[in-house]
Amino acid sequence: MNNSEKYALITGATSGIGRELAKLFAADQYNLIIVARNHDELESTATELRQHGGEVITIAKDLFNRDEAFSLYEEVKQKGIQIDVLVNDAGQGIYGLFKDTDIEKELDIINLNISSLVILTKCFVKDMAANGSGKILNLASVASKLPGPWQAVYHGTKAFVLSFSEAIREELKDSGVTITALMPGPTDTDFFNKADMLDSKAVEDKDKLSDPADVAKDGYDALMAGTDKIISGFKNKVQVVVSALAPDSMTAHQVYEQQKPVDHE
User: Fold this and answer.
1) Which Pfam families does the annotation name (predicted)?
2) Structural domain boundaries, residue 64
3) Read out DSSP for 75-139?
4) Helix H or strand E encompassing 249
5) CA–CA separation, 120 vs 170, rounded Å?
6) Does 265 fall in a domain?
7) What are the phi and psi torsion angles at 177 (to 5°)?
8) 38-93: per-residue pLDDT in tens?
9) Could you tell me how far CA 68 lies from the centroid of its own chain?
10) What kind and span of H or E run contains 31?
């Protein structure tokens, strides 16, 4: 089967890393199902992607509501489409000290970053395993390897994504289905704005942020190669190696200092 007969489904496809991944799939002649909350942003993105000649289907879903993850799968099945590649890109964070942050927002983020990702993976991986082929790319993060003061819930969700991805990869090793975890560091996307994190030292120097197109290319190449996980960016690789050698308490303090507000004493 050539790529023009294949379908990739990408959540969070209208901005940041998800949008850049969608461009790469479109350029490789995949047909696409792109998913996000905003209808207008979906249509704008689809118009750009259709220039490559493939089919682009838009489906608006709010994956903060995990029921919409189930309905997304059902909608795809009703269309009679087999998904060859699933990209779980949609994710969000919340910034602040855990004692002060909004628990309802944090529970929504757990639903988005974990529950909906697990639901979509469960639904589509069953079909992929039955067909004997398929690829899944889950957006983890270098945050999955680091305690995350100021973003405790976000880092915790990404630790789940990485552990979950590695576990089911082993379960599926003889099935023809591969699972890849993409682990970017701080990237120049709308993530920090949505997380109310613009006053953090982590984004003080935007020149130090990764380019989402570079991150997407790292993830795309790793996915196509069937690699288990990829840390995008040399400095992020170094940070993960160093943190693995240091006591967790020391790493937590370093991340606290890196992510605290600029004006925080």
Assistant:
1) adh_short
2) 3-259
3) HHHHTTPPPSEEEE-------S-TTTS-HHHHHHHHIIIIIIHHHHHHHHHHHHHHHT-EEEEEE
4) helix 248-259
5) 18
6) no
7) -110, 130
8) 999 999 999 999 999 999 999 999 999 999 999 999 999 999 999 999 999 999 99
9) 17
10) strand 31-36
CA–CA gap between residue 197 and residue 93 (Å, rounded)? 9
132 assigned to some structural domain: yes
Note whether residue 37 is domain-resident.
Answer: yes
The answer to whether 118 and 91 have CB atoms below 8 angstroms apart is: no
Give the chain's domain count: 1
- Contact, 69 vs 63, CB < 8 A? yes
Whole-number Å distance between alpha carbons of 119 and 110: 13
Per the structure block, which two tokens stand in for 88?
């779980």
User: Model pTM?
Assistant: 0.92
Q: Indicate if 154 belongs to the active site.
A: yes
* CATH classification of the domain holding 217: 3.40.50.720
Q: How many CB atoms lie within 10 A of CB 132?
A: 9
Range in 79-88, 136-145, 186-195 with the lowest mean pLDDT: 186-195
Supply φ then ψ for residue 121, to 5 degrees. -65, -45
Separation of alpha carbons 253 and 235, rounded Å: 19
Q: Catalytic one among 7, 30, 73, 154?
A: 154
